[in-house]
Design brief:
Blueprint (H helix, E strand, L loop, with lengths): L4 E5 L3 H13 L3 E3 L7 H6 L2 E8 L5 H10 L8 E3 L15 E4 L3 E4 H17 L1
Parallel strand pairs: 2-5
Antiparallel strand pairs: 1-3, 2-4, 5-6
Length: about 120
């Protein structure tokens, strides 16, 4: 009952996971690259031993303590945020995925890229 969502990082890296989780939930997020980590490695490095999890704010301390007690590394890389649209220059109610100063895209834009790229390539 501590996690709201979880996704392994085995295919496509954290970037792919963030997109898939945002599209599945229909809710945007504000994410960042932790200090000392190369953005490319964070976004595209595949690893079967990592997962992105969503933890309610009320459970964050308990989750962090649980990971530490078990010797599992945990790094906060963002927050689920359904109100980012206006902050990013979009209309109120627009869901966006923001990653530091690297990119901000609406979930509608991400959905088109996610669902149409392969069919468009195969038709062309």
């Amino acid at each position: 009952g501590m996690l709201t969502a979880a996704h392994d990082v085995s295919d496509g890296g954290v970037g792919q996971v963030l997109v898939e989780m945002a599209l599945r939930s229909g809710v945007g997020a504000r994410c960042w690259v932790p200090d000392g980590i190369d953005p490319f490695v964070l976004l595209f490095g595949e690893s079967a031993g990592r997962a992105v999890v969503v933890v309610p704010r009320s459970e964050e301390l308990r989750f962090t303590e649980m990971c530490a007690a078990r010797g599992l590394p945990a790094q906060r890389i963002g927050v689920v945020d359904s109100g980012l649209g206006p902050d990013a220059g979009f209309a109120a109610g627009t869901q966006v995925l923001e990653l530091s100063n690297l990119f901000t895209m609406t979930l509608d834009e991400l959905r088109v890229a996610h669902e149409r790229t392969l069919p468009d390539v195969l038709q062309g």
